[in-house]
Amino acid sequence: MQIKKSKIVANGTEKMPSRMDIGALIDQARFFDGISREHKSALSGYCLHCERRKNATLFHEGDEGEAMFLLARGRVRLHKTSADGREVVINVIKPGEVFAEAILFEEKCYPVTAVALTDVLVLKLPRRHLLSLLQQEDFRNDLIAMLLRKQRFLTERIQLLTGASIEDRLRGFLRQQYGERERIVVEINKKQLASAIGTTPETLSRMLQRLKRQKCLQWQEGVIKITDSFWNPKE
């Protein structure tokens, strides 16, 4: 799908892309499955086109929540800051996914910090417009159903991070982000990946070396080559 591009400046740009581009993005986003054509059209009319450079912060934990976001291009990391100052990665958002939807119901402030892992293109859906749509019962019911699906995903992710091995976490992350492929071009570095699967860069490097010796997986210059034995390990 082609997206109308604009020049990225240091502090980002925001403007309205064509209605067709926005409509296609919303149609392809699983978060909006089940939403009526009328409501999708209304959402399209509210969207703002926003680009940010790699490593830019889209919003900080505790900032007033002004919008929900739909990622169109790139990768975004969501993290919380622990009491000892560590960044705990909650999720890595891939194209087609929505984030910061919590500000519609839970609280007016963002519960996490969002950082661009790559140059990104997002659609911003302003909170004030979404709240006006929520006054309509059918839209409200559809959105609640979507939030419940997102909650199930986050519950499964917590279970994975707390109960799975590092290799299983890596497998789950790659499968969720890219699907089961023999060749993956990754936009993030090894340190970012380690953070995303809840381990240290040193532990990840040791595991990658082991997988390379086993001829299961090889990461070289931003490309991961994977064999079937990695996707389907023997018990």
By CATH, the architecture of the largest domain is named Sandwich
Gyration radius over CA: 19 Å
Total number of domains: 2
CATH class of the largest domain: Mainly Beta
Strand content: 15-25%
Shape descriptor = globular
Helix run count: 8
The helix/strand class is alpha+beta
Described by strand count, sense and barrel closure, the largest sheet is:
5 strands, antiparallel
Q: How many beta-strand elements?
A: 12
**CATH H-level superfamily title of the largest domain:** Jelly Rolls
Widest sheet: strand order? 1-2-9-4-7
CATH topology of the largest domain: Jelly Rolls
How much helicity do the residues have? 25-40%
- Poorly predicted runs are 1-20
**Helix-strand sequence:** EHHEEEEEEEEHHHEHHEEH
Output mean pLDDT: 82
How far do the termini sit from each other? 40 Å
